[in-house]
Structures are given as structure tokens and as C-alpha cells.
Write a structure and sequence with these properties.
This protein has twelve helices and 24 strands. It is α/β, with parallel strands linked by helices. α2 packs across α3 and α6 crosses α10.
Amino acid sequence: MYTIIVEGVEKRIETEGGNLREILRNHCFLPDYCGGNGRCGKCIVLCEGKKVLSCRVNVDRDMRIEIPSTDAPVQTSHGVREKKTVDGESFFAVDIGTTTVAVALCDGTGVAEIAAFDNPQIRYGADVLARIDAVRKYGIAALREPLLSALENAEKTLAEKYRTRPVKTVVTGNTTMLHIFWGENPAGIGTYPYTAKFLDFRKEKSTLSLPCIAAYVGSDIVAGLSLCDAPKTGADLLIDLGTNAEIALILPDKILTATTSAGPCFEGANISCGMPAREGAVTSFFLSEDGKKEISFLGEKPKGICGTALIDVVANLLHYDIIDKEGYLITQNGYPICENIYLSQGDVRAFQLAKSAIRSGVEILAEKANISLDEVGRVYLAGGFSSQVSVQNAERCGLLAKGFSEKSVVLENASLQGAVSFGQGKTQPEDVIRKATAVNLDDEKNFHATFIKNLSF
């Protein structure tokens, strides 16, 4: 029997040995985006003063470790003005994101306050496939109970602060997150033919979740689409920039939807110096013709880059041919962004995969609707960090098609806004469900060729 002393959180763990990450996960919050495969580099701990990846450490002796602090709040915009008061009957609107959970205390006229926190399931991996695999390995309670506990704490804090008793809770999220929230096994979503146990409204007591379109097109995209008016001619486009990027082409009489695995690079998960948008995150980057660099960051000292800065860095390096059209980074040992923060060749490849997945999904939906991208009128950008994205840089690096930056409309967290709107009785998701069709991109004969084409810048 071995003893692990976790300094800073006053934990003493008795164990018979095994993988350090597996042991710690049941006792401490430990970011881990790759499911223990040693790729993301985020499960770092200090073991007797030395930085190690806990997923690569076998406990075969007594240890003293320290887990780096992750207490800094998530810095994310929700596109909702907080009025800091509650007038009359109140309710909660909840957006369960794969990475971040947002809880809004609302009333009939607006939002009093929003609380956001890391989805505690992150310790099981960054994307929904990793979460589904974790349910198979550890049981659904291992993922569900920490989420429900964190939600309960956030809701209780908000309710007590404003001395109110909310009458209901409206929940949105992707289909996998809703399955885990309700305690349903999402295994069918993880394998072909990708079937969900439920897609419709789900209600228990005073809690209701909005409907989904398909196994990989959840109520988060439905909530966002409920905020968008259908165009009279042509088409509009909604893109939710997340780990599992969701795309919807909005036509006058129908909606084509798809999801594509952009990977967690926009959350900083598989980027060498990547991190979420919290204290220390570099949020923007500019490189001038004389080589001078300008950055913006959260807090007092830069510690890593988040998704918005990643887009800026790639776009700027492309402009000055430091990255070529095929994604080759000409500087050896990476490109230095600022002290101790750099972009690696592997980071560029991760970005290429993500941007190609999103861009290719858009092109296939347009092809299926028999329209050109020039016919797209508005491009709605959804997702927690969309308000901070430079749409010009997103276009320069190919994430958005040419001309889309001028058509962009930021919805920020459309999922949360949609939940608030439904709770206030202003929108009806049934209208979206009736018009929507889910397109499986893997079944589209041109998708893979389009994906390969869009890997280039």
C-alpha cells in the first residue's frame, strides 16, 4: 500500500498502486483532454518538485505531489447583458458545453447574472467520444454526479445571492451531454449508425431540456437556430465554433445541419502552449512588417494561447510566409509568440485539421442545397469565444470562406441565449425541428476529397 500526499488541497490518498492520473481523477480536479493518451500535456503535476504527465506515471512508491491551480474563472462572453436584479418570477437557463457550463439566472425581462465553470467531465477527455468511452469504462454516475453537483452549487449560489426561488430550469447541450445529464447511456451515439436514446423534449419535475435534431446535432444548435429568422432568398449560415463544430445552412423553407469534429484546438487542448480563455491566456496576436509582435492577454502575465489567438497567429504567419500554403512552419523548434509561449509544427497541423473540418462541412451543405457560397447572406458565429474572434483573420487562414468576414453576425453563446429566450416564451424550438434535416458528412461522396483540399491554406 502506498500513500500519495496531494499538497495544497490537503488530501492523503491510500492506494495499492497503478496509474497516477487514474488515481487522482477520483479525488481531485485534473484537466485531461486526450483521455490519458499522453498527447495533450494538460494533466501535468509536480511530483517531488518535478513536472510530469500524471498519465505517464506509475505509482510504485509513496509520493508527494502538487496539482497546478486551475481556480481562475473561465473568461467567456455570453452575449447577454447582466442586469444584476431579479424582477418577479425567476428561472435558470443552463448550457452544458463539452468544455464549459454556463448557468443564467433569468426572469421574464432579462438575465440577472451568469455563472460559468469548467465541465468537470474534462478529466475524462475533451470531446464527446472520450466521454462516451469514459461512461463505458467507469459508469455514467462517474460523469453525471460531478456535473450535477457543480450545477447545484452554481444555482444555489445565484438563487441565494438574489434571494429568489426559480420555478424551472431550461437546459441545452449537445446530444451526448444531455444523455449524461439525464443519466442515459450515450453508447449508441458513439458507434454507427449513431443512434440516440432520445431526441425530443425531456422533462422531470421542473427541469426541461430542449430537443435535438440528431445524435450529433444537439439542442444547443436548435436553441441557436431558434434565434435566427429564415432568409427570404438565398441562405444564411450558422457555425458553432467548438470541439464538435455544428453547422446549419438556413434556407427559406428548410434547414440543413451537420456536425464535424474540429477537435479541441480552439479550447487549447491539443496545442503545445494552449489553454482555455482564463487568466494568463493570450487572446490576440499581431505581427507587423518589421517583425514587431503585439499581444493581448488576460491577467498579469501570459501563460499560454487560447483559440482566438491561435487563429490570429496562424493568419499572421501565413501573411508573412512563415507558414506556407501546405502548413509547413519554416522556423525550427517552433515560432516564439512571447516568452515561454510558442507555436509548434504539430499545432499548425492540429489547426489545419480543425479548419478543414469546418470549412468542408460548410461547402458540402451548400453543395447539397445546390447553392454557391456567394449566395450566403449572413454568417452567424456562435460559441462561447466567437465574440473575440477576428473574422478577418479567420477568413485569411481559410476557416471562413472568402467574403464571409463581411457577412458575419456574432451570436456569442447562442445556445444559452436560446435557452433564455425559450424560458421567457419568446421562441419555439418545434419550428426548427420541423424544418431541420441532419446530414451525415461521412456519407457524402465528396466530403473526404473536400476535406483533403481544404487542409491547404
